[in-house]
From TrEMBL:
This is Succinate dehydrogenase assembly factor 2, mitochondrial. Pfam families: Sdh5. It comes from the Eukaryota. PANTHER family: PROTEIN EMI5 HOMOLOG, MITOCHONDRIAL, SUCCINATE DEHYDROGENASE ASSEMBLY FACTOR 2, MITOCHONDRIAL. One of its GO terms (cellular component) is mitochondrion. It comes from Skeletonema marinoi.
Length: 202
């Protein structure tokens, strides 16, 4: 009787061990990659892969067109690219008009709601009347980091020293003063909606 029980215990122990071994073996089989070796891109093996050869041929044909489209997408607009001009302006005037529109657009699309609202509104109302020298000054301001523009408009920092004037009436100083007096900084939802709609602020 004792011997029979001992045999049963031995068989159970061996069965448990064998089950664990089988489970471990299955895990090892699932993790084993065989002799696949390193992955090789089809393009790196194009001479031996018909699909890759056709893909490469299509890419070679499409690449010049792709580069042309990308260059045109990144290029800033100029008067020469204005297809339908019925304003009677000469080329210099058209270039100036394009520059003003570009600056207004950049002022509205900073990515910070407060800056878009304040700077975009000021630009929509005033950029069209700026002189070339003032446009240069405004573009210099617009080229600052958005957080620096935000700090100036919300009076957290002073106007940068190189944008100040002795009389305190420089362009950026006037913008800061306008922002200080503007009702846009107040929590007025109706005014906010009105200004966004009026100045086409998306």
């Amino acid at each position: 009787m004792m011997m029979h029980r001992l045999c049963r215990l031995t068989l159970r122990a061996n069965g448990f061990h064998n089950n664990n071994a089988a489970a471990l073996s299955r895990q090892q089989v699932r993790a084993y990659l065989g002799g696949a070796g390193d992955m090789i891109s089809r393009r790196d093996n194009a001479n031996k892969d018909e699909v890759a050869k056709r893909e490469q041929e299509l890419w070679d044909r499409a690449q010049p067109r792709y580069e042309e489209i990308m260059e045109r997408h990144l290029r800033l607009p100029t008067a020469e690219k204005v297809a339908n001009d019925s304003t009677g302006m000469n080329e210099e005037e058209r270039n100036l008009a394009v520059r003003k529109k570009r600056l207004v657009y950049r002022s509205k699309q900073r990515g910070w709601l407060e800056v878009d609202l304040l700077l975009g509104t000021w630009a929509a109302e005033n950029v069209s009347n700026l002189s070339v020298a003032e446009l240069d000054e405004f573009e210099k301001f617009v080229n600052l980091e958005t957080i620096d523009i935000y700090n100036v408009l919300t009076l957290r920092t002073d106007v940068p020293e190189d944008m100040r004037t002795a009389g305190g009436d420089g362009l950026v100083e006037r913008i800061a003063q306008w922002a200080k007096e503007s009702p846009l900084g107040k929590a007025d939802q109706e005014k906010y909606v009105e200004v966004k709609t009026k100045n086409n602020l998306i």
